[in-house]
Amino acid sequence: MKLTIIGGGGVRTPLMVNGLIRWHERVNVDRLVLFDTDPEKLSVIGNLVSHLVQKKGSPFQVEVATDLTEAVQDADFIYTAIRVGGDVSRVVDEKIPLKYGVLGQETTGPGGFAMALRTIPVMLEYAKIIEEVNPDAWVVNFTNPSGLITEALQKYTNIKIVGICDAPSSMKLEIAKFLNEPADDVHINYFGLNHLGWINRIMVKGEDRLPEMIDRYDAFSQGFPHMSSFPKTFIQQLHMLPNEYLYYYYFREEAVQNIRQSSRTRGEQIVELNRSLLSQVEDCVQKGQLQKALDIYEKMMSERTRSYMSNETGGAKGDQSVTFESEGYEGLAMSIIESILHNRRKTLILNVPNQGVLSSLKEDDVVEVTCLLDRHGPVPLAVGHIPDRVQGLIHSVKEYERLTVSAAVSGNYEQALLALTVHPLVCSYSLAKKILDDYLIEHRAFLPQFKKGSGIHA
Amino acid sequence: MKLTIIGGGGVRTPLMVNGLIRWHERVNVDRLVLFDTDPEKLSVIGNLVSHLVQKKGSPFQVEVATDLTEAVQDADFIYTAIRVGGDVSRVVDEKIPLKYGVLGQETTGPGGFAMALRTIPVMLEYAKIIEEVNPDAWVVNFTNPSGLITEALQKYTNIKIVGICDAPSSMKLEIAKFLNEPADDVHINYFGLNHLGWINRIMVKGEDRLPEMIDRYDAFSQGFPHMSSFPKTFIQQLHMLPNEYLYYYYFREEAVQNIRQSSRTRGEQIVELNRSLLSQVEDCVQKGQLQKALDIYEKMMSERTRSYMSNETGGAKGDQSVTFESEGYEGLAMSIIESILHNRRKTLILNVPNQGVLSSLKEDDVVEVTCLLDRHGPVPLAVGHIPDRVQGLIHSVKEYERLTVSAAVSGNYEQALLALTVHPLVCSYSLAKKILDDYLIEHRAFLPQFKKGSGIHA
Amino acid sequence: MKLTIIGGGGVRTPLMVNGLIRWHERVNVDRLVLFDTDPEKLSVIGNLVSHLVQKKGSPFQVEVATDLTEAVQDADFIYTAIRVGGDVSRVVDEKIPLKYGVLGQETTGPGGFAMALRTIPVMLEYAKIIEEVNPDAWVVNFTNPSGLITEALQKYTNIKIVGICDAPSSMKLEIAKFLNEPADDVHINYFGLNHLGWINRIMVKGEDRLPEMIDRYDAFSQGFPHMSSFPKTFIQQLHMLPNEYLYYYYFREEAVQNIRQSSRTRGEQIVELNRSLLSQVEDCVQKGQLQKALDIYEKMMSERTRSYMSNETGGAKGDQSVTFESEGYEGLAMSIIESILHNRRKTLILNVPNQGVLSSLKEDDVVEVTCLLDRHGPVPLAVGHIPDRVQGLIHSVKEYERLTVSAAVSGNYEQALLALTVHPLVCSYSLAKKILDDYLIEHRAFLPQFKKGSGIHA
Amino acid sequence: MKLTIIGGGGVRTPLMVNGLIRWHERVNVDRLVLFDTDPEKLSVIGNLVSHLVQKKGSPFQVEVATDLTEAVQDADFIYTAIRVGGDVSRVVDEKIPLKYGVLGQETTGPGGFAMALRTIPVMLEYAKIIEEVNPDAWVVNFTNPSGLITEALQKYTNIKIVGICDAPSSMKLEIAKFLNEPADDVHINYFGLNHLGWINRIMVKGEDRLPEMIDRYDAFSQGFPHMSSFPKTFIQQLHMLPNEYLYYYYFREEAVQNIRQSSRTRGEQIVELNRSLLSQVEDCVQKGQLQKALDIYEKMMSERTRSYMSNETGGAKGDQSVTFESEGYEGLAMSIIESILHNRRKTLILNVPNQGVLSSLKEDDVVEVTCLLDRHGPVPLAVGHIPDRVQGLIHSVKEYERLTVSAAVSGNYEQALLALTVHPLVCSYSLAKKILDDYLIEHRAFLPQFKKGSGIHA
């Protein structure tokens, strides 16, 4: 079994590898290949990972690669986790909309839009190579904004792909924990789009426990900081549990205000954290102090999410650390491989083509819903009637996504402008134009598709 | 033929009566009854109107009434044009959202919401009387916000009702004028909701002239100031002609900025204008100087719209005056009576139950579409596929309308809060709560239905 | 104003011309051109028509033509009423299905299917010429099966076309007569497909008179023999008025039995009647006895429909004669020209693209619904929710139509077989195969498109 | 774990018990209760079953019961397999439509309709008791017509219910066998209604093997006699695999002809077979020769399906025997218990509320689709777009089902008549009336709900 990580030089790779080691009995990897376009980062992270694997008794072989064709050849699974333009671009993504009073965030709103414009062409280029060299491989996409990237890969290529996001899966785990039930005994009816989903039924042994969750919401959110930004009165009124990212919609102006009041955006923090992390780790690696490098890595990563969302939701509400023991993305990633590889049927919340379960959307629109996953790949489960109160948001954001994917491929300025205009957090042609024009200037190095015909000067 | 105007003491009544006189050959009214709950205004306006009718040779009889049952008895047509809470409430409607950076406008956004909460219970009370006393009468609703009021009357009563708004009809007239074609020879494909509609085809002799209109947009908008706030590049990209009120959506933050930069909101201007108008006219009436009263009225009304929208769209763009010669509401009102009374088939843009023409909405949702109107009342015409790019707005605003009507009737705080939350110009629970709570305090005298169970203090 | 009749040599042409004369004040035709591919019939009918027009004071000029390009050049309106394969083919159309116990009828079921296969390629050839030579002309299609032909012309050409059938219009006229109201004061909610429609509301002055019609159904159907084959108990249960052709569905086995019990099918009668008519008329024409020819024509046509439907609905129920005074097709045809030419807005039941009014069908499926007709051409009116009890029939027949049109163009045997299989009156692959194979042999001269790849021998 | 079989005196009960014994390691039943209203049959079958269980080492306890409340109390699972009116009624069900040239078959068409009218009131009575006494029990419905019974129980009660039919599951098993793949490795996209379903994708390791199945159809159907009645050319054209019961639709007149040519209907055969079986078994039981009774039972049941469908599909095509080793219903029944009881996730084809996966049907219409089944009960999987060619049949049959359930409950004659009228195999009001009237006379003892207000004499 061969697993390839595209973007293997990323700082989260050691966490992923740690997951591979922990899950090794259930998901038996033989060869792990790390591919990256940045040889320097690849070398540092590669060394770190090799040491980690060796330390744990070398359950599998680790290789690094800078040739994609070779890297994906014969792979059974391919993870993709790239960041076009690097952390520095994220800072730009976030700062520009904030200038105009609009949410500046990595994946939601204009930030995710800019990221998608940069990332989709690169991901499509990679996918074409996979399609040619190894069409049977399963691609598990972690690259953000996950829904948009998955939509692009689904519509423009024939690779086998599952798009993932850990937020809904974490919700499910936390709900099960709170209800004191095994996660497998909890069936949640989750529907929507990536970072725009809701839970309107929580079935445990044939009984809907959502009303109880709402009654005991304060206790629940105390233990699950990601949800603590929603007050109980709001949840009672909504009568659903929203994905944490819906904070940016339902508390739109507060989110902007909180971020503005922070000294730095999350992106700026990350730039600094990663810079510091990489330089320290690299230093150790060069000195051959691999264990020390690993200790530093582990310590710095665990401190990292202490501040997660605290500057966006306006307070020291978050207090979750990412450790080598936590699940999150890594657990979800392993779970997917296990289901497909060993036909272990699971119900996971994934990004997949709609195929009719959200009846007002198109058959091939990518949605985020509870799916059955097994050897045959993911199939969405029926979600029933979608409440009228969220239809507007779903329609607007899905149209934003369709147009964004289209614009990212075509480099058509008008389409890009329309995409931002219909996004509910922009909801304005004039705002969209200002933000888009700023992005086209700032990110011009990463948006070659917009070179000609751009309407910036119009 | 008897026509009753509910809200007959309003300042626009003489304009309407002038329309009746001008159209007298085509729409032969015998008795005109002005009903109002404010005896003072009713007396002033009643005197003015009587003088006007007498001067024109008394084509019909004029009466005033303060008893609604009597007023509507035997009426063939009933116009409704009331303003619960008066002009002063409008100022409140507009100022509160502006405080939070959200559009403050008479009908669109939170302003229209507050107006609807005050007005729907009163309109329903009136409609119940009409339903009992004179169920065969046709009610032509001018009361704003027209779409919401029509939705409430349609869903909660069995009266025969047509909701009207002059904006789309004016668009059609201006388009015909610009294309140099008789209005009757131009068929526009108009669809959406009140103050949220688009034109995506302009058929003249079997040919779609929309592309030409877009090419020549600058010339068109020069002659039609209501549209001049949309730049040509925007129209080219949208590839539809939007209702002028869509300025508040597509240029959301500019609209707010323009209004904030004005020394006074439109509502404040109107309060002052109407106060001055009424006091001068009343003065003359009391002195028996009826012709002078009429002259003052005519002069002051014609100056009025010189400033229309200029403070909202950010400049002295508007320069249209309302005169005794203009059509607008009055022409549309006459046109409706003529169609129904004399079976003169016309295609008019009206607010009516959907009946399947906007396939993603419900059968009984009130929509604003081109209708066939004749003796049998209005029937919507097919509009074809609604472009994806506007589905999100339509869904959001329609759900806002459904919830607002429901909340206005029930006095349910949570429903009202949800209504504002899903409105695209609010798009935030936290904003919605601030605005709603302010309204409930400021308008408490006019919102008795919210007395108990209000969540203000929650 | 020039009007061209394609298929001008048909026996009904003089009736049509008589309509033109009677309506001359309202629809001012200058030139009438009769085009036909059969020079003999064209000469006989041409002479008859010329005499008729001359006798009435020559209100317009009559020409005959055998060159289509010339005939359609400069025409404002083009009627199409052709019969590929002639009356004799109709006999085959009807007899083959009867052999297998399936309805054998001119337009409904396999008979209409065979007719469509022969006719669509010829009509498309004609339409292509019109498209090139005179794209602005309005084509009014009378050629049967009208719904299928209109669907084919709509989908494969860009001509301006209205498909008509007199059955629903006759229903409306009879209903109005029965209710003692001017036809214009009756608005019927008619929906479905050609020869497969229902009326579920009859609005007169805002009141639904359908319940009354159902209560008094026996009296109604006594005066309107086309409906007399439906017993009152059936109508009560259906709670709608069905198009007369629905007799073939709702009384399926009785219709087949009645036809089988007749000594001859309707088609055989027509062959004989037309043969006799033409020979007698031709005889007179050759002798120059034009008035005598006209007298014979008039007498024989008026006797004709005495037997209409009597052999299909099982009794001497029908007793309507077609005279020079009756309206039917001719009145409807004139009405359409008048609406378009003089912008006289009417509500007519026409075959037009759906455009969303039957929400479960596709946008471009041709449906038969009440339309607004004026200078801009027809636009369907909203019909509201379609009752569940007829959804199955509508879906099956529409899919039959889509596949039939496709097969008529492609000559694909499998598609043709599938078309007949899904027709509710066949509802069997094995039956469909037998019937289709017989048709392909019997009609081989008129179905060149099926020459190769036919699965007959499979 | 307690399992109750309602209708435990039926001849298939020993087969089911044998399944319980074979699956005992996977589904550990402690108590088995057989309930029946016929004490005689219950005694015979009860003795047979007791002997069988004892012989296999008494893995669980067997009881018989004639009090339903007691029988269902504390049960974890309840099977229902009743036949109101007994085998003799089935003969009537089948013979009446055949008289009129319409399919006479146990579950499809008028036969299933009559069975539903008799059975639904009894099943609802039972379900109400379960709802009150033991609402947590899972009811697995085998009672035919399974789709209609499940629809009735879903709409009129709140019990937990899964409706099953072994036909689609058998298809899946046969397909897997033919493709030489483990059944679990084959994912079929099955959609439709009970006895009206299609397979349009057969996924094996991410590849669609349907095209291959169609190419090799003759070999497939040779090994699976249920499908052998469909010729390959038909399957090629349909490009889907139909449920075997679709033979009655796609080969409508051949099915009727075959049955008519048989000396006896399937129902008549069954009456005789069961009579003989029961009398021989009873004889042995009374003499205490239990092993002999079991031997006779086993021999006679295994011979039984030798003739299955042979008289309906017109030939000795079927040659499958039901033995104690075969799976069919019994395997499916065990599979369902195992999934729910031990949370063993499976994809099974079940009858469940639609919940949006067939987008043109209603949310609560019962459909037959591939579901995920686990502890949480069944959830339909997305099936994607339903081909247009089958929409008509699905709409017609579903409406027939809705009306039949309604009529069975209300005893409304008109509703019952309408139900039969819309069924595609009747497709005629006149035929429906004759068939219904005959049923109401013949089955009057079992249709008390139709006693008054019946329109028979109308």
TrEMBL record, chains A, B, C, D:
Pfam families: Glyco_hydro_4, Glyco_hydro_4C. Residues 190-426 form the Glycosyl hydrolase family 4 C-terminal domain. InterPro entries: GlycHydrolase_4_CS, Glyco_hydro_4, Glyco_hydro_4_C, Lactate_DH/Glyco_Ohase_4_C, NAD(P)-bd_dom_sf. The record marks E106 as: Increases basicity of active site Tyr. Keywords: Cobalt, Glycosidase, Hydrolase, Iron, Manganese, Metal-binding, NAD, Nickel. The active site is at D166 (proton donor), Y245 (proton acceptor). Its cofactor is NAD(+). GO terms for molecular function: hydrolase activity, hydrolyzing O-glycosyl compounds; metal ion binding; oxidoreductase activity, acting on the CH-OH group of donors, NAD or NADP as acceptor. Mn(2+) binds at C165, H195. Binds 1 NAD(+) per subunit. Substrate binds at R90, N144. GO terms for biological process: carbohydrate metabolic process. Belongs to the glycosyl hydrolase 4 family. This is Glycosyl hydrolase family 4 C-terminal domain-containing protein.
